[in-house]
Structures are given as structure tokens and as C-alpha cells.
């Protein structure tokens, strides 16, 4: 079988490596430049590749094409592959065909990375033999090639789900839906939402689908979709007889036996993280992990980098890095969790944002807005009449310098940009790291664990 891999990043190399290990003929093609470390690995493993081009003759003779989620569906080479009827899959689809491990797959517009990491922590903390992959950590395919895990916890994006055929998780999870990446889905919210629901489309009645009962779009679509898996809801608004729910001060999971703990004992803060903890706890109970072990994991989990990450406390001012909040909905959750007057750093590449969604929260929680981007006009225009203090900056150094000068003891400085990072930074990780560097520069600080 001839396998062609499009894209030479983490998932692309992993897929090529797995194919080679399975004795297939492999060719990897990347239209851009391949990072030196991956080139070295391709050469070390005898994998034929090209960069800076897609040679059609070498690609369109494939039996199976494995596509990086970063390559747009409308790309010319994808159109031609589809015309020829070549099977086109994502790395998660390809790798899942070569493992019998139980897969726990998590998708949603926000909270994927945190919840995926939390579930991995719950399983690992209980002593299970588990790998972490998908949109996070090491390539799933590379792990399938080299490891023999009994479980995989995978963060899965809509772009990866667009290219599945047989992918069937033991447990699938849809955390929430909000308008994101609509440029890739014909500016149609339902089309994007249905891509997320593909996580459950191949599941059977011996599988589980965990969903958010409070999410309006999810509930609308569930009325139309025929999901075969056992469906388990989580909710912040009502009690359920099976699934999970929260009251004002406790979380409850009802599945065979009951699990319960105080919200104040959760290591993660904010309402959205209570919801994430509910979803993760259901997965733990499905896998028959003890109440004591789940409770311990929920108390000891450390938040993921760039997602409501506490950077430091400097002279009574708390600095929080939420660089991963690249859309308005993610920023909503961050602002909602603020308990003190907030200096808010926002801006970047706007993805058609509607700031009206967070207007009330900004009025209530934010004492000053620091815009950080090449073009901040849209944000300034929207909040001009709503906030007295708005600053226009074009570098992280300037943004942090101003935040330090205007914040007072008891305040929080929050980087939660609402926008993509590509105007000033390589990616959201680069943006978050630069924020942390500037915050910690020349400071004697208390760094919280």
C-alpha cells in the first residue's frame, strides 16, 4: 500500500513513521518548509519526502492520503485527490486503525486542552497505562507505532474530524459549541457544529457519548441526530438522574454509584472549569475509577500552560496568562472567573468577533483595557463609550509596562486576547511566553503553583 502524508509537522511525521513501521511505501509532502528536527527524523527513518511543493504525480498515485489538519479542505491538491477517489484521512483516523486501545476523544469549541489534560491526569493518577495525543502533546500515530498503551486520551479538532471514516472512540465528549473557524465552514454555524458531532458518528451502543445539556446548539442538533452510543449529560443548571451536575457548592456524578465533592476543593477555578470537571469525572466513572482517586486527581491537577495560567503575584497584583483564549467565547469564561478588578490585555487578528457577547462582563469586571495588536481600531471603537481607560499598544513589552503602571494591589492583569496571534507572534504559545517573560522581567515575584 502506498501512503502519502501531506504536512511535515508533528502529526505528519508521526503518520509517516507509523506507515513505514507497518511496512508501507511512504512519501511525505509539505508545501512549506519542514522544521529541521522533523527533516532529520524523516532521513533517519528512511522516509522519502519533499518540501516547498506538492508534486502531483507523487501524491495522486496514493492508495491512502493522510492529511494535516492545517491544510484547508479547499486546497487544490485535496480537490484533485477527492476527484480521483483516493481515501483521505486525518492522523487520528489513520492511527486508530492500528491500535486496539480504548480511546477517549474530546472535542468542543473551548476547554478541550484543559479537559483532555485533566482526564489524562485522572487515568494516569489511577495507575492506568495511558497515552496523551491528538491536538496536544506527542503524535498519536508515533505513540501507536512505539508504545503499547491500553488507553489514549485525545484532544480532537473539527478539522481532524472532517477527515475520519471509521474513527470510533470508546468514550467521546463534546464540551460546548460556539462560533469559531466559520471561515472554513462556509460561515455556517450549524455546518461547523455538525463537524464536531462527527466524533460520535461511528460509535455503537457499547460506547459512551458525554454532552453538555446547557449548550443550546448541541441540544438542537441532538434532536436531529441518531447517536447510538449511551448518552450521558453534564449540566450546571439542573439535577440529572444519570450523568453529572453541579449545585452552588458541590459537583455530583450519578453513574451506578454516586460521586460528589465540594467545588472549592477543585484545583481549577471558574464556572467553565466546573463544567470541564463534571465531564472529566463522568469519563472517570465510566472507566470504574474510584471516587477517592477521582477526588484526588481533581484536587491535584495543574492548569495547562496559556489557559488561565497564574504567572505571578507582584506587589499584590496577580498576572494571568490566558493566551489560548483566541475567540470571544473563551475570553467570556476567563472574564467570568475574575474575582478582582481586572486590567484586560486584548487584541490580535480578529476572526469576525462580536464583542457584544462580553460587553456586560467588561463593564462589571474590567477597570482598564490594553489593546495589543497591529490594528486595534475595532476593539477601541466598540469599547470607547463603555470604558474610560483604553490603551493602544503594538508590543508585549509596551502592554505589560502599562499594565504594571496602572494596576494596584488587589488587581488582576489578564491576558485573554479574544483574537488569533499571527499579527505580532508566531502562535498563541509564543504570545503567552512573551507575556510571561515581560511580567517576570526584573521582578522579585511570588510564583504560584
TrEMBL record:
Residues 106-283 form the Mur ligase central domain. Pathway: Cell wall biogenesis; peptidoglycan biosynthesis. Keywords: ATP-binding, Cell cycle, Cell division, Cell shape, Cell wall biogenesis/degradation, Cytoplasm, Ligase, Nucleotide-binding, Peptidoglycan synthesis. It is found in: Cytoplasm. It catalyses: UDP-N-acetyl-alpha-D-muramoyl-L-alanine + D-glutamate + ATP = UDP-N-acetyl-alpha-D-muramoyl-L-alanyl-D-glutamate + ADP + phosphate + H(+). Pfam families: Mur_ligase_C, Mur_ligase_M, MurD_N. Residues 306-418 form the Mur ligase C-terminal domain. ATP binds at residues 108-114. Its main location: cytoplasm. One of its GO terms (cellular component) is cytoplasm. Its EC number is 6.3.2.9. It is an enzyme of class 6 (ligase). One of its GO terms (biological process) is cell division. GO terms for molecular function: ATP binding; UDP-N-acetylmuramoylalanine-D-glutamate ligase activity. Belongs to the MurCDEF family. Cell wall formation. Catalyzes the addition of glutamate to the nucleotide precursor UDP-N-acetylmuramoyl-L-alanine (UMA). This is UDP-N-acetylmuramoylalanine--D-glutamate ligase. It comes from Chryseobacterium taklimakanense. The gene is murD.
Amino acid at each position: 500500500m502506498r501512503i502519502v502524508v501531506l504536512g511535515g509537522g508533528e502529526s505528519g511525521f508521526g503518520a509517516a513513521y507509523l506507515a513505514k513501521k507497518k511496512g508501507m511505501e511512504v512519501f511525505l509532502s509539505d508545501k512549506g518548509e519542514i522544521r529541521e528536527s522533523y527533516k532529520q527524523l524523516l532521513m533517519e527513518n528512511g522516509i522519502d519526502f519533499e518540501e516547498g511543493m506538492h508534486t502531483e504525480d507523487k501524491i495522486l498515485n496514493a492508495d491512502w492520503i493522510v492529511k494535516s489538519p492545517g491544510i484547508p479542505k479547499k486546497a487544490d491538491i485535496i480537490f484533485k485527490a477527492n476527484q480521483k477517489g483516493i481515501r483521505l484521512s486525518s492522523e487520528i483516523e489513520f492511527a486508530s486503525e492500528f491500535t486496539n486501545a480504548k480511546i477517549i476523544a474530546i472535542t468542543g469549541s473551548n476547554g478541550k486542552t484543559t479537559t483532555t489534560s485533566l482526564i489524562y491526569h485522572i487515568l494516569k493518577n489511577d495507575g492506568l497505562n495511558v497515552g496523551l495525543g491528538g491536538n496536544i502533546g506527542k503524535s498519536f500515530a508515533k505513540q501507536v507505532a512505539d508504545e503499547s498503551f491500553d488507553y489514549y486520551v485525545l484532544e480532537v479538532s473539527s478539522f481532524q474530524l472532517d477527515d475520519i471514516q471509521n474513527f470510533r472512540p470508546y468514550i467521546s465528549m463534546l464540551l460546548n459549541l460556539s462560533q469559531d473557524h466559520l471561515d472554513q465552514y462556509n460561515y455556517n454555524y450549524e455546518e461547523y457544529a455538525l463537524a464536531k458531532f462527527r466524533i460520535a458518528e461511528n460509535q455503537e451502543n457499547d460506547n459512551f457519548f458525554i454532552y453538555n445539556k446547557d449548550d443550546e446548539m448541541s441540544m438542537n442538533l441532538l434532536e436531529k441526530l441518531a447517536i447510538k452510543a449511551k448518552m450521558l449529560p453534564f449540566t450546571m443548571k439542573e439535577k440529572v438522574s444519570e450523568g453529572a451536575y453541579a449545585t452552588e457548592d458541590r459537583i455530583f456524578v450519578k453513574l451506578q454509584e454516586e460521586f460528589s465533592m465540594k467545588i472549592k476543593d477543585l484545583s481549577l477555578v471558574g464556572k467553565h472549569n466546573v463544567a470541564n470537571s463534571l465531564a472529566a469525572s463522568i469519563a472517570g466513572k465510566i472507566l470504574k475509577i474510584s471516587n477517592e482517586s477521582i477526588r484526588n486527581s481533581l484536587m491535584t491537577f495543574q492548569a495547562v500552560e496559556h489557559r488561565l495560567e497564574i504567572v505571578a503575584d507582584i506587589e499584590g497584583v496577580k498576572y494571568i496568562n490566558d493566551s489560548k483564549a483566541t475567540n470571544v467565547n473563551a475570553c467570556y469564561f476567563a472574564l467570568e472567573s475574575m474575582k478582582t478588578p481586572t486590567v484586560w490585555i486584548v487584541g490580535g487578528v480578529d476572526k469576525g468577533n462580536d464583542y457584544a457577547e462580553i460587553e456586560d462582563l467588561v463593564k462589571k469586571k474590567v477597570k482598564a483595557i490594553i489593546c495589543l495588536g497591529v490594528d486595534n481600531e475595532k476593539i477601541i471603537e466598540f469599547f470607547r463609550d463603555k470604558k474610560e481607560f483604553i490603551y493602544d499598544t503594538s508590543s508585549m513589552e509596551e502592554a505589560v509596562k502599562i499594565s504594571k503602571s496602572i494596576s494596584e494591589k488587589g488587581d488582576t492583569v489578564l491576558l485573554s486576547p479574544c483574537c488569533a496571534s499571527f499579527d505580532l507572534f508566531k502562535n498563541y504559545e509564543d504570545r503567552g511566553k512573551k507575556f510571561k517573560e515581560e511580567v517576570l522581567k526584573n521582578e522579585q515575584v511570588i510564583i504560584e503553583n
